[in-house]
Each structure stands twice: as C-alpha cells, then as structure tokens.
Amino acid sequence: MKKELKNLMIIAMEARKYSYCPYSNYSVGAALLCKDGRVIMGSNIENASYGATNCAERTAFFKAVSEGEKDFVAIAISGGFKDMESDSFAYPCGVCRQVMREFCDEEKFKILVVKNEKEYEEYLLKDLLPKSFGPNNLSG
Ligand code: THU
Q1: What separation in Å is there between the alpha carbon of 44 and the centre of ligand 1?
Q2: pLDDT of 52-106, one tens digit each?
Q3: Residue 81 in contact with residue 27, Cβ under 8 Å?
Q4: How far apart are the first and last CA of the chain?
Q5: Is residue 32 classed as helix, strand or coil in its secondary structure?
Q6: Which atom of ligand 1 is nearest to the CA of 45?
C-alpha cells in the first residue's frame, strides 16, 4: 500500500482521540485525503438529544467542504470502544456513505476501514453503496 494511504490510516486512528462520545462510549476517527494532498480529520460528536450526533466521516466531509475542498481521494475510518484499541472494523453508516456519494467518484474514491496498522480493508465507494442515487440523477 502507498505510504500516503498508510499515513491516512494512522491519522484516522489518531482522530479517535478527539471523539466526543459520552453516551455510546464508542469513538470513531476519520481522515479524509483531498486531491491537493491535504488531510482533514474528523471524529464523532454526540449530543444529549442523541439525534443531533454527527459521525466522524461526516465531520471530516463537512469540515473539508466548508473550507473549500471538494475533490477527494480516500477516507480512512477507525472505531472502537473509547480508550481502547479497535478490535473490529467500523464500517461507515448509510448516511455517511450517501454524503460520500455527493462529492466522490464512486469508481475511484477509496474507503479504508482500519482495525490497526496491519489489519484493514479497502473498498471503493461503489462496493459499499451500489446502485446509488446521486447528483447525476438530478441533472438533465
Ligand atoms: N459512528 C460514526 O462516527 N460513524 C459511523 O459511520 C457509524 C457510527 C458513531 C456515531 C455514534 O457517536 C457512535 O458511533 C455509536 O453509534
């Protein structure tokens, strides 16, 4: 695997430290690689109302888009119980997959689901969100 993607996995694991998850105690970190080489971190941010919780992946995407980034190469995601090493693969939820679909090429955008530096799975967006609805459906 390319050094750039290995580094992305390490940043996703690091991003878990900034998770705000007092209700589930499940911390998720994400690292989003932009085409210009910039890496944007995200973590899950929970809320006492539960429904206002934001996932790590969407935090990263919304930070990036709100700062002018719109071209993305890959995202790495790492999740597990707070203050513990991840012992399972934290796949992105359906809403986050749909947000990825808004901005990314489903044939090219890579999703790395990371347990640790040695154990990870690599997908394309189209693998995790097949037959999707996207911006092209609404353009003539
Ligand atoms: N979570 C994420 O951050 N990303 C996902 O794709 C799935 C779930 C968070 C939301 C919530 O804070 C915690 O994990 C437990 O659901």
Answers
A1: 6
A2: 999 999 999 999 999 999 999 999 999 999 999 998 999 999 999 999 999 999 9
A3: yes
A4: 39
A5: strand
A6: 12
